[in-house]
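User: Okay, second chain of the day. Same drill as before: sequence in, structure tokens out.
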Amino acid sequence: MAQITDKTREEVKEVVLDFFAEECEMEIDEISEDSSIIGDLDGDSLMFLELIEIFKKRFNLNIELKIIGKFAVKNPVQTVGELIDMQLLIIEHENNILNL
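Assistant: Same drill. Structure tokens below.
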């Protein structure tokens, strides 16, 4: 389990914004934490899985996709900010995320 710092939050936010800007062919300043992933960015679940893989490698996470799926069903995200918060929870708690 990792300790979440302001630096970690900024790093996660930067990765998420860069990812959506590239995938959605948008300027990064067009995307905010309030942007709807589906409504504003035409995002989909495959993008979410790609982001999970990016963070698994970047933070050397040991978490099963099945665990993330169960957590996401109970705690769906709609905005970029909610996605950032979920990624931080995954980084901090890994497989223990279901115990939250």
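DSSP finds four helices and no strands in the chain.

User: Thanks, on to the next one.
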